[in-house]
Design brief:
5-stranded antiparallel β-sheet, 3-stranded antiparallel β-sheet, mainly beta
Length: about 140
C-alpha cells in the first residue's frame, strides 16, 4: 500500500471589503481555498484563514464575498493567485461505508470545519471533504 499524500492544492483569495464573515477595519482578509477557479455556478466556497486572530478557522463563504480575479485588489494587496500545496488537516485512510453520513474515498483530504475555539469538541469534529466540498 502506497503512503498517503497529506498535501492539498490551494490558492489565495481576497475577500470583499465587507464580507459576511471576518470583516476587518482598514485591511482586507486573505483566505486559502482548494477551489482553484471559482465558477459562476459555485455558490459557497470552502475557505481557511491562515493568519490573524481566526488563524486556521474553516468555513464556507458565499461567492460574492470573494473578490473576482480581475480585481486590482490582488496586486494592491500583493496576493498571489498561484496554486500552492499545503498540509490538509487530515486524510482518509480508507473508503467510507455506505451507512456513514459523509462519503469519502481513501486519500481524500479534509479540513476540520470549526472556528478558532474548539473546546466544545471532545470526541468528534465536523470536517469538509476537500474533493467533494461536502461537510459532515
Amino acid at each position: 500500500m502506497e503512503p498517503l499524500d497529506c498535501k492539498v492544492s490551494v490558492r489565495k483569495y481576497v475577500l470583499v471589503s465587507r464580507p459576511s464573515k471576518w470583516s476587518q477595519k482598514s485591511c482586507r482578509v486573505v483566505v486559502q481555498s482548494p477551489v482553484l477557479n471559482i465558477r459562476n455556478t459555485d455558490t459557497e466556497i470552502p475557505v481557511k484563514r491562515f493568519s490573524g486572530e481566526d488563524d486556521n478557522s474553516v468555513c464556507y463563504l458565499l461567492r460574492q464575498d470573494i473578490e473576482r480575479d480581475a480585481s486590482h485588489i490582488y496586486d494592491k494587496e500583493c496576493v498571489s493567485k498561484a496554486e500552492v500545496r499545503i498540509d490538509a488537516h487530515g486524510v482518509a485512510i480508507s473508503d467510507s461505508v455506505s451507512s456513514e453520513e459523509l462519503a469519502y474515498k481513501r486519500g481524500d483530504k479534509f479540513w476540520i470545519y470549526v472556528g478558532s475555539s474548539t473546546s466544545q469538541y471532545t470526541t468528534t469534529v465536523p470536517v469538509i471533504n476537500l474533493r467533494t466540498r461536502e461537510s459532515g
